[in-house]
Amino acid sequence: MIILNFIYCFVELNTLFILCNIFIDKKYGDLINGFTISLFSIINFLITQIYPNTLGTIFLVLFATIMCFILFQYKIKEIIFLSFIFFIVVGIISTITINIISLTSGLSSHELLNNSLIYLFGGIFNKLIPLVLVFSIRKYRKNNEIIEIQNIIIFFSLIIFLFIIIVAQYSLVLTIRDEKSRILSLLISLLLIIIFTIIVVILSKYNNLQKNSLTSQYNNNILALYKDYEINLIRNREELIMIKHDLKHHDQLFKTLILEKHYDKAISSINQLIEKTNSISSTVFSNNIVLDSIINNFITEYLNIKFTININTSLSLLDELDTCILFSNLLSNAAHSALKSDKKIIELIVLENENFYVIEVINSMEFEFIDINITSKRKNSNHGYGLKNIYSIIHKFKGNYHIDQTNHLFSFKILFPKGSIQNEKN
C-alpha cells in the first residue's frame, strides 16, 4: 500500500509540473525538475501520514522552506514569502472546501475530515499551490523578467473551476440516492468542464494573438529606428566627404589671407569651418557602423546628458539587428533614468578579452530601487518589451548579466562568451 502511495505521489506531481509548464511556460518540463518535486511529494506524504494535524503542516512548511533554500537558492525574503503564502492559501482553501461540502451535503465537518476524498482533494491542492508558486518565482529569478500574469490567471481559474465542479459533484453524490440522477449530474458536470475548458482555450489564444501583435509592432519600431540610424550615418558621412573636399580650397584660401595679412578674415573663415564640422555628430568609437550610429544619435538627442564612451572592440560577431536592439534599448533605459537625476551621466563600456565580450552601461539615477529587478516605467508597454528583447539576446548568445546600484549609480553589465556568439552565427 505504501509503495502504491509513493507511485501515486510521483505520477501526481509530475502531471502537475507538466500542467504548470504547459499553461505558464508553454512547453514541457524536464524530468529532473519533475523528479525533484516528486521527491518533495513523497516526503510530504510521509509527514502527513505521521503527523496528520497542525504539527504535520508545520513540519511540511519547514521542509518546503529548506527545499526552496537548497534547490532553488532563494533569498530569505522570498522563502518567508513562500512560507507565508503556503500557510494562508492552504488554510483558506481547506476551510472553504470543508464548509461548502458540509453545507451542501448536510454532513458535519467532523465527518468530512474523516472522509478520504477530502484528504485527496486537500492533498492535490497542498501540492499544486506551492508548486505553482515555486515554479513561477523560480522562472522569474531565472529569466529576470515579468511573469505573464494572464497565463497564471487562466491556469488558476481553470483549476479553481474544476475544483468547484468536483466539490459540487461530490455533494450531489452524498445527497442524491437515485442512480439515474447521479449519472445525470455527472454528465452535466462533465459538460460544464468541457465548455469552460473551450472558453479558456479561446481566451488563451486571443491573449497570444494580442501579445504577438504588440511584439510585431515593437519589432517594426526597432527596424524603423535602425533605418533612421543608417540614414543619419550616411548623411553625416556624405557631409564629412564634402568637408574633406572643401578643405583643399580652404587651405589655399587660408594661405592667401595670411600672406596678405587679412587675419580677421582668416580667423572668421576658420571659425566657420569649425562650426560646420561641429554640426556633424559622427564620431567613430568602434569602427562598427551600427554601434557608432546608435551612440551618435543618443549623444545628439540627449545633449544635457554627459556621455563617456570606452570601447576597444567593434563587436563584429554580433549581427546588425541584434546590435541595434541591444544597445538602443540599453541606452534608452539609461537615458530615461539619467534625465531624472541630478548628475545626468551615462558611461558605456564595451571591452573584449580572450574569452568574453563585456558590455556595461552605467547611468545616474534619481533614487535607488528596493528591488533592482523592478522598473519604475511599468506603464510603458514598449519599455517592458525592450527589457524582454535585452534578455532574449542575452539568452540567445548564452550570456550572463549582473545588475548593481550604488551611490545613485545604476549598472547593467553583460558578459557574452565568444564561442557562443560564433556558434549562433554559424
From TrEMBL:
SUPFAM superfamilies: ATPase domain of HSP90 chaperone/DNA topoisomerase II/histidine kinase. The chain crosses the membrane at residues 6-24, 31-48, 54-72, 79-104, 116-137, 149-171, 183-203. Keywords: Membrane, Transmembrane, Transmembrane helix. It comes from the Bacteria. This is GHKL domain-containing protein. It comes from Anaerorhabdus furcosa. Residues 320-417 form the Sensor histidine kinase NatK-like C-terminal domain. InterPro entries: HATPase_C_sf, NatK-like_C.
